[in-house]
């Protein structure tokens, strides 16, 4: 008998058993998690490691049956078990009681991680006194009334120019739209919140723009997204060390850019960056808080609109009847320079945007609240103290129990036929948590007015000057996690003859 070999095998077995025990301890469902809701098996959450299924398909196959029956499930996300809900009754309770279901983003959940180093403690993920402080500083800039749609119109005009130029340079097929949309979204964000014209459409390939593409790829890497504990070991995973330095570079470059900014001509000094500058100068906030809030404004104010516009090009480019109806309404204004009020008077344009937000909610799922005591969600689901809870907007918006048997059909008319009626529908559906694209109650989106206006301006300009169809070779695939949108969309852009030849009944092109 070779004793040394036997001993070696024994030690190997012991190590293996210990590892299995640690793994079991790490991924086991705590006993006090609610027993009256089902569990989504852990392999569904980590599927991104071996599959590139879209989040709509994943939802349909593994989450929808359970969530439509029980209203909530236990699910693995970001290295722990959480409660995810879609039943509006449960969500009203969650969103109305921020004291019990307190906002707690990555800075609380996984403070050592790459994502936490990117976002820090900011207006979206903070709770209590910090949130009140950030809101008092930033809300005026976030909700600044935009009476002049001119600057946004100029950016959308340039965006359409670039689409036409790119199409002209292709022998066949459609334009890859996402990179151009990103440049549009960054430009609109810059002039409205950072008081700086980043000129991303005019000067492509700037470092700040490049970093966005890198950051988005880095954040949603399935292995680190699901097991953020690995971010503790950047020496073992050198790509995470790179990720940390990319996040640092982005923060530094952004601060430098806004410091160097030449004020845009129409700037009124009341943008988010101006509020943050004043608060930093008077020591109301620390440098760290300044950076975190600047970065989150930069990211939120471009990324969601970017992905919503991708979805818009997909939906309207694969359903030309809707595109034609929208064009008819837009042309009825008989101007190429509509005022904000004129754009706000168009019901179909508004309803199309709402329907896009319903079926393609950019923020499709978030698990960023933690219970501050034991609680019974909606009087139904007992949740222990210090448990992370969240919601899935795609699930709520496509649930036939909430939106009827045609819940999954794109039908803008469901929102109503006149602007006043549509406003009323948005209000009541948001309060009831039937529509949560911008969340609801105390922590709802502070940029939604701007986001909707920005979309109105861009869709106005696109419908007025272009006819587009989705490239017949393109097959729809949605992102597998994170912000929801079509991936790699290509669309064939044709300039409308009337505009091209100057036969436009309104003012100049
Ligand atoms: C289509 C575009 C947009 C969508 C779909 C969207 C969606 C959302 C959602 C779902 C939330 C809640 C997040 C949570 O529960 O943690 C939120 C919060 C927020 N959004 Fe937006 N957003 C959009 C555009 C914007 C823009 C342009 C800004 C401007 C900077 C903005 C600023 C904020 C802020 C500051 C909050 C936090 C509010 C608070 O907690 O008090 N959003 N947004």
Automatic annotation (TrEMBL):
Superkingdom of this protein's organism: Eukaryota
The record's family statement is:
Belongs to the cytochrome P450 family.
User: Which UniProt keywords are listed?
Assistant: Heme, Iron, Membrane, Metal-binding, Monooxygenase, Oxidoreductase, Transmembrane, Transmembrane helix
Q: Which organism is it from?
A: Penicillium cosmopolitanum
Query: Which positions in this protein are listed as binding heme?
Result: 445
Please identify the protein, giving its name as recorded.
Cytochrome monooxygenase xanG
Span of the secretion signal?
none
GO MF, one term, reads: oxidoreductase activity, acting on paired donors, with incorporation or reduction of molecular oxygen
Chaperone as a keyword of this entry, yes or no, is: no
Kindly list the cofactors needed. heme
* Coiled-coil ranges from the UniProt annotation: none
User: Membrane spanning segments where?
Assistant: 7-27
Q: Which GO terms describe its biological process?
A: mycotoxin biosynthetic process
């Amino acid at each position: 008998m070779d004793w040394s070999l036997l001993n070696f095998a024994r030690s190997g077995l012991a190590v293996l058993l210990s590892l299995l025990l640690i793994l079991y301890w790490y991924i086991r469902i705590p006993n006090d998690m609610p027993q009256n809701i089902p569990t989504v098996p852990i392999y569904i959450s980590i599927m991104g490691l071996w599959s590139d299924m879209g989040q709509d398909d994943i939802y349909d196959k593994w989450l929808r049956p359970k969530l439509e029956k029980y209203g909530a499930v236990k699910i693995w996300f970001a290295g722990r078990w959480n409660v995810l809900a879609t039943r509006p009754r449960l969500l009203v309770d969650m969103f109305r009681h921020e004291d019990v279901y307190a906002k707690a983003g990555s800075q609380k959940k996984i403070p050592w991680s790459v994502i936490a180093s990117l976002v820090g403690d900011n207006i979206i993920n903070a709770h209590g006194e910090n949130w009140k402080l950030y809101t008092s500083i930033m809300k005026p800039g976030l909700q600044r009334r935009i009476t002049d749609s001119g600057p946004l119109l100029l950016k959308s005009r340039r965006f359409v120019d670039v689409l036409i130029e790119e199409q002209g340079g292709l022998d066949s097929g459609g334009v890859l739209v996402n990179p151009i949309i990103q440049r549009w979204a960054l430009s609109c964000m810059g002039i409205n919140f950072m008081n700086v014209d980043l000129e991303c459409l005019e000067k492509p390939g700037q470092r700040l723009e490049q970093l966005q593409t890198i950051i988005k790829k880095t954040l949603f890497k399935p292995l680190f997204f699901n097991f953020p504990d690995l971010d503790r070991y950047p020496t073992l995973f050198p790509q995470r060390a790179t990720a940390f330095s990319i996040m640092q570079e982005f923060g530094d470059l952004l601060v430098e850019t806004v410091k160097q900014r030449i004020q845009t001509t129409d700037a009124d000094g009341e943008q988010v960056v101006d509020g943050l500058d004043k608060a930093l100068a008077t020591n109301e906030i620390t440098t760290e808080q300044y950076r975190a809030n600047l970065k989150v404004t930069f990211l939120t104010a471009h990324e969601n609109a970017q992905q919503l516009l991708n979805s818009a090009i997909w939906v309207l480019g694969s359903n030309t009847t809707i595109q034609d109806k929208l064009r008819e309404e837009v042309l009825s204004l008989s101007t190429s320079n509509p005022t904000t009020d004129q754009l706000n008077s168009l019901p179909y344009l508004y309803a199309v945007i709402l329907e896009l937000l319903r079926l393609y909610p950019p923020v499709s799922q978030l698990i960023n609240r933690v219970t501050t005591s034991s609680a019974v969600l909606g009087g139904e689901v007992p949740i222990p103290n210090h448990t992370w809870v969240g919601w899935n907007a795609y699930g709520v918006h496509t649930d036939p129990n909430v939106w009827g048997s045609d819940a999954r059909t794109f039908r803008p008319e469901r929102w109503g036929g006149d602007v006043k009626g549509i406003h009323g529908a948005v209000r009541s559906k948001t309060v009831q948590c039937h529509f949560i694209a911008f969340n609801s109650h105390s922590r709802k989106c502070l940029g939604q007015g701007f986001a909707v206006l920005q979309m109105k301006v861009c869709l106005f300009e696109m419908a007025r000057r272009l006819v587009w169809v989705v490239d017949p070779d393109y097959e729809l695939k949605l992102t597998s996690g994170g912000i929801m949108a079509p991936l790699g969309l290509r669309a064939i852009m044709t300039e409308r003859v009337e505009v091209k030849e100057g036969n436009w009944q309104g003012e100049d092109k």
